[in-house]
Amino acid sequence: NRWLHVTLDTVRLPDGQIYEYTTIRRDKAGVAVAVINAHGQILIEQEYRLPVGQVVYQLPGGLADVGEDLVDSMRRELREETGLLAGELHHLGSFWNNPASSDGQCHVFLCRDFQGGGPTHHDTAEFVAWEWRDPDWVKARVADGSIRDRVVLCALAYLWLAGEIA
After folding, report:
1. What are the tens digits of pLDDT across the range 93-104?
2. φ/ψ (deg, to 5) at 23
3. What is the side-by-side order of every strand in the sheet holding 42-49?
4. Where is pLDDT greater, at 89 or 1?
5. Phi-psi region for residue 44, left (φ > 0), alpha (ψ -120 to 50) or beta?
6. Over the chain, what is the mean pLDDT?
7. Taking 80 as the threshold, does the pLDDT of residue 117 lie above it?
């Protein structure tokens, strides 16, 4: 479909055995942004996710169009989901979503330079709410298991490594 492709590859393992490997391939890279306001708060979204059957905490983001610059993609996604207009974005890092089964990767950005007030343009299946939260609140939700989204977890690690949060 337009989101992913599933391939079955027959491979020879190092011990000589033949194995059928299932891989989820993506043509599009993921992008996400940790938006931090002047008070040091992080923008956190909530959205219902059908595969896990619950509302999850997440960061603004989505998929870059094929050939689209990642920064342009991140600006577009942030504007569509929140109405915020990003100025300067800093690339914090990237990670594989699950290299055991997929070649998909996600790029995480930091945005402290933004303006608000624009309209949102959600995709048909997007029902997003967002709010500003202190980093300690976010970390506490990770610790108690309320936040389990890999993008939020990786973004927190990148923010910590960059000295943006303690």
Report:
1. 999 999 999 999
2. -130, 135
3. 54-58, 42-49, 128-133
4. 89
5. beta
6. 94
7. no
Q: Collapse the DSSP code of 163 into the 3-class scheme (helix H, G, I; strand E, B; otherwise coil) and give the result.
A: coil
**Collapsing DSSP states into helix, strand and coil, what is residue 109?**
strand
pLDDT band at 122 (very low <50, low <70, confident <90, very high): low
Question: Three-class SS of residue 80?
Answer: helix
Q: What is the dihedral of CA 19, 1, 67, 105, to 10 degrees?
A: -50
The amino acid at 117 = G
Please state, in angstroms and rounded to a whole number, the distance separating the CA atoms of residues 83 and 60. 11
Cβ partners under 8 Å of residue 128, min gap 6: 45, 46, 47, 81, 82, 120, 122
Residues comprising the chain, all counted: 166
